[in-house]
Amino acid sequence: MTTSPEELLPATRRSLLHRIAVAQAEGRAPSLVAAVVRDGRTVWHGSRSSMDGHAPDENVQYRIGSITKTFTAVLVLRLRDEGALDLGDPLEKHLPGTGAGEATIAELLAHTGGLAAESPAPWWERTPGALRPELSDVLGERPLLHPVGRRHHYSNPGYTLLGALVEEVRGAPWEEVLHREVLEPLGLDRTGAQPRAPHAGGWAVHPWADALLPEPVEDLGRMAPAGQLWSTTGDLARFAVFLAQGDDRVLSADTVREMRRPAAPAEAADVMDGATYGLGLQIQHRHGRLLVGHSGSLPGFLANLTISVTDDVAAVVLANCTSGPLLGTVGADLVRIVAEAEPRIPEPWRPMREVDPSVLELAGQWYWGTHGYGLRVTADGRLSLSPLSGQGRSARFRANGDGTWTGLEGYYDGELLRAVRRPDGSVSHLDLGSFVFTRQPYDDGAAVPGGVDPEGWRGIG
């Protein structure tokens, strides 16, 4: 008997079910539903419920809270990609008069704009958005609590401003723009600002008794871009694929990759916890694995979306309780279970279609001073530089079409690599952002800055 590579093994499926069963039971959630994505498609769905015969499926809506922020960030980055704005623009340039306009759009996306975490009282999550009809009602008399751009301080009003920015530039309501530009193209027809049956009810679970209290469901009004949306595990699974791969109808692969890069200075506690923030995405390092995604909560609901791009595995977990199960931990565990039990099978190695002799000439061993490096020419037409010892700066480089190469990551991201040739056309050395790489350590036949002692290498006698 063989198993299709798209299917999970029975043991893996049981481990996933066991994990969410423990989370629902120990977290005392009225219901909990989860999905796992691999290779761009949903490969597992599971749920647990306190009501016999009413376990939710992948089409039941839950409120997803701050995962909404990732959708809002996608809209803002679409505007940037179209040239309607720049992430370095101060908000004041496009949305004047807020009192927080010195913060840049990038800083608002990364929660480094210095804004307060919440809007002024009353508690915005449990009161009608009609109480805060204007941006000034959301921001209050003192919008900025910290110096702009200096530290990461999570801000719900910051994403309210980003939603207002989208409305200002597009000339249409945030919800309408979101539906037209993101939800429809990605086929997320069970995601929206208002619940549509079937949907879960939100509950508070008494901390000292097995008793329930229904939570109010409020329209957040101006605060909607920070946390209004309802969605399903089915839709969020498709959204996870988009965040990992991109979709040119919405955002390119390069732009979603940009969203996944750290964009905020981490606090000391965050450094210890291995957590930071990108452009609308939370980033964390857990158990040797880099995870991106977002969590969400509103009274009566918890949500989590976790993606390991390297493993090509994502997890969605939703519950209808105010507190209880730690869905971030559950999501990370679901990803880990699949990634460890069924490691990603790499694509077959294939040689290059064409070999450029002038590029092949660059391959091999190089030295930056006395540090040994290997430069490989890869089948995708790029160069890959890595230290021979396993310790040091590594990077991939893309060709610019003029004999130079641009770094794509790490220390050499954006730096220029070029081969410096002698009058006879042979390669003298590599220049990488002014650093000289030679074929031999401090090669006296190359233009090593500072020169090479004419007596050469020697011992101590």
Keywords:
single chain; 461 residues; alpha+beta; 8-stranded antiparallel β-barrel; 7-stranded antiparallel sheet
Q: Gist?
A:
The chain has 461 residues and is of the alpha+beta class. 27% of the residues lie in helices and 22% in strands.
Descriptive overview:
There is one protein chain. The strands form four sheets. This protein has an eight-stranded antiparallel barrel with strand order 12-13-14-15-16-17-18-19. The protein has a seven-stranded antiparallel β-sheet with strand order 2-1-11-10-9-8-7, with helices on both faces. Strands 3-6 form a two-stranded antiparallel sheet. Strand 10 and strand 11 (313-319) form a beta hairpin. The protein has 461 residues and is an alpha+beta fold. It has helices at residues 10-27, 67-82, 91-94, 105-109, 135-139, 156-170, 174-186, 224-227, 233-245, 253-259, 268-273, 327-341, 357-360; strands spanning 31-38, 41-49, 62-63, 203-205, 212-214, 230-231, 275-277, 282-286, 289-298, 301-308, 313-319, 364-368, 371-377, 383-387, 395-399, 404-407, 416-421, 427-432, 435-438. Helix 2 runs parallel beside helix 6.
Note the topology.
Layout: H1 10-27, E1 31-38, E2 41-49, E3 62-63, H2 67-82, H3 91-94, H4 105-109, H5 135-139, H6 156-170, H7 174-186, E4 203-205, E5 212-214, H8 224-227, E6 230-231, H9 233-245, H10 253-259, H11 268-273, E7 275-277, E8 282-286, E9 289-298, E10 301-308, E11 313-319, H12 327-341, H13 357-360, E12 364-368, E13 371-377, E14 383-387, E15 395-399, E16 404-407, E17 416-421, E18 427-432, E19 435-438
Antiparallel strand pairs: 1-2, 1-11, 3-6, 4-5, 7-8, 8-9, 9-10, 10-11, 12-13, 12-19, 13-14, 14-15, 15-16, 16-17, 17-18, 18-19
